[in-house]
Design a protein that fits this description.
Elements: H1 2-40, H2 48-79, H3 86-123, H4 127-130, H5 133-153, H6 160-199, H7 205-247, H8 252-278, H9 280-305
Helix pairs in contact: 1-2, 1-8, 1-9, 2-3, 2-5, 2-8, 3-5, 3-6, 3-7, 6-7, 7-8, 8-9
Amino acid sequence: MSNNTEVLGRECIVPLCVLNSFFALTAVVLNNVTIHAIRKMSSALLPKNLRVLLLNLAFSDLSVGLVVQPFYIIHLTFLFESHQGNYSQKVEIVFVVMATLFVCISILGVLAVSVDRFLAVHLHLRYHEIVTPKRVVSILILSWVISTIVSLFLIAQEYRDFLWIFIIVFFVTCLTTIALLQCKIYSIVRCHRFQMRAQQVQGSIQTEETRATFERQKSSVRSAFYTYLLLLACYLPNIFTYFVFMKSKEGIFKILHQYMITLTFVNSSLNPLIYCWKLRHIRRTIRMILRNIFVGRHSGTGSCRN
């Protein structure tokens, strides 16, 4: 039975490594372009607080493809081997620590974006007075510190099982909180829409300004909502299979758990697509960047030939 399991595991290593290599490259390229596009955008097109939050989220996604997935590919090569040395254990520790760090940062980043969008539609005119860029940066620094401390505790083998359960409970709490925030945002946006329709007959300047602000917020709110749905689709299967994997660490459950870990990392490759899809100004900026890159290369090649 163990020989069949080992053979089955080795047959799954190659597709897992190929998948992680592809999505690691995709995450690095897409998040690099997204970070460059967000940095080039003016505050009039993208609010400063939202820009800082999206940069934080894009950087964590970039780190997943640049650091976590390469270590995961190395870890996979040792996972189903019968004789594992100290080197494989060190790689596993590095992978677990780095994966926990950047996955926690990603979840906290989505939570921060949802809280920011909730405050934007709830506070309305008082938003810029209460939610300042310095406070946003302070919260993000705190999230990095907490995630780093939690991930470093995983180095100790004796506390790892307890910490994994704590992290799972923390993830579920964050996902539930984001869901409640999204429901509240939906109700507030719906109420604002009804109010604007009731005031549309008046056609006042204040109503036009309110409508313009509402339209700008609506795209960012939708972006936060679809980012949350993507987070659910990529993380919930891994949380479910983890509890199954705790009871059965052999056979198909072990292999299925590795695929669910890969699905978790896929989230970092797909987040930039959500920004491009729902945030029009980021999409335009990325198009301009890519056009300048490819047109510049083409014109450069043509001039050399001439």
